[in-house]
Every structure is written in structure tokens, then in C-alpha cells.
Write a structure and sequence with these properties.
47% of the residues lie in helices and 6% in strands. It is globular and about 45 Å long. A hairpin with a 4-residue loop joins strand 1 and strand 2. Helix 4 packs across helix 7. The chain has 2 domains: 102 residues, no CATH class; 60 residues, no CATH class. With 191 residues, the protein is mainly alpha-helical. Strands 1-2-3 form a 3-stranded antiparallel β-sheet.
Length: 191
């Protein structure tokens, strides 16, 4: 799988294909000389991490989840304040509890800013992609738990759907190997 990821990185360099643009209300100044969404996001993560340490009112934390991450449904309230603090403590102990994992799509964005070299975002898109790589390039049958996504089209497909881009088919992981495949309406072929 590592070789496949390296091949993808060489074929589709992330700095050229990264499209996650930042909102207009970025809480720090990003120098004009830093161009492109990829490098601007790296700068943001590297420089906002320090400010998060003194963000006692959690304003920056909510900005990351709601504005940068696009999860407007994560409301600013005491319950979520507690969830953010609880998540941080659980990360420090390397153990997440189930109620925290239910909010992982929102809260993991914070971990990716607190410690960008250690944590990545764990949301439906990221895990779908990781599971596809596992499914496509290994014989491993265990996949990462798929958080429920906010995208209506993604939710309608179900969380256990894996797309086999090479064949242009959508395969349900529970039917893999039994020849049950549904044609995919539109697939961009990578190979």
C-alpha cells in the first residue's frame, strides 16, 4: 500500500491538486508570498497551533471546526466547550471514548491543528479514501470505522461502500469476492 500511495503522490502531486481553500476570515495573517491552497494551509496549521494554546474562550477552536472545516452545525455552546476540553484530555491519554468518537469528524480537525505532525483529520472523506486504498491495494479485510458524513450523496451510498476505480464499479465491502457489483454512474479513472 505504501508503494501505491507513493505512486499516487508522484502522479498527482498534492501541492498541485490540493483544493481546500480557506475562508476569508482567517484569524492570522498569511504572507502574500505564500501561494496556493496547499502551502497556505500548511502555514495556517503551523502558525495557528501556538495561538490555540492560549485560546481559553475557544474562539479559534470553533473557527477551525465551523469555518475552516465547514461544519456549521457544531454549535458554540457549553456542551461543545466541554466536548473540546474532554477530547483534548483523551488525546493526551491516547484513548478516545465512544461519545467523543461520535464527534470525531469535527474534533479531529482540532487535533490536526494542535499537533499536525501527529494527527490527521478523521472524517468521512478522509476515511473513505484511506479505506479505498486499503481495499484496493491490500488483502486486508478490516477497514477503519466510517463516520457518518454530512454530504447527502455520500450518506445515500452507505458507509460500507468502497469504489474500485480501476474497474469502474462500486463494490459493497460485504459482497467483495462474491461478484456482486453495482455499476457506478460516473467514475474518474486513476489508472
Amino acid at each position: 500500500m505504501i508503494a501505491a500511495i507513493q505512486n499516487l503522490a508522484n502522479t498527482l502531486p498534492l501541492e498541485q491538486h490540493f483544493t481546500w481553500e480557506m475562508p476569508e476570515n482567517v484569524p492570522i495573517d498569511i504572507p502574500q508570498k505564500i501561494l496556493g491552497a496547499f502551502y497556505r494551509n500548511i502555514y495556517l496549521k503551523e502558525h495557528l497551533a501556538q495561538a490555540l494554546e492560549s485560546d481559553n474562550d475557544l474562539e479559534l477552536h470553533y473557527w477551525i471546526i465551523r469555518e475552516w472545516g465547514g461544519i456549521k452545525t457544531f454549535q458554540i455552546n457549553e456542551r461543545n466547550n466541554h466536548q473540546i476540553h474532554e477530547f483534548r484530555q483523551q488525546l493526551n491519554h491516547n484513548r478516545l471514548r465512544r461519545p467523543t468518537f461520535n464527534l470525531i469528524s469535527s474534533l479531529s480537525k482540532l487535533a490536526a491543528f494542535w499537533h499536525p505532525g501527529e494527527y490527521s483529520i478523521y472524517d468521512s472523506r478522509a476515511i473513505f479514501s484511506l479505506n479505498w486504498l486499503i481495499f484496493r491495494h491490500t488483502n486486508e479485510r478490516r477497514l477503519f470505522p466510517q463516520p457518518i458524513g454530512r454530504n447527502a450523496a455520500g450518506r445515500s451510498l452507505g458507509s460500507d461502500l468502497i469504489i474500485d476505480f480501476k474497474k469502474g464499479e462500486a463494490l459493497n465491502k460485504s459482497s467483495r469476492g462474491r461478484g456482486k457489483a453495482a455499476p457506478l454512474i460516473s467514475v474518474a479513472r486513476l489508472e
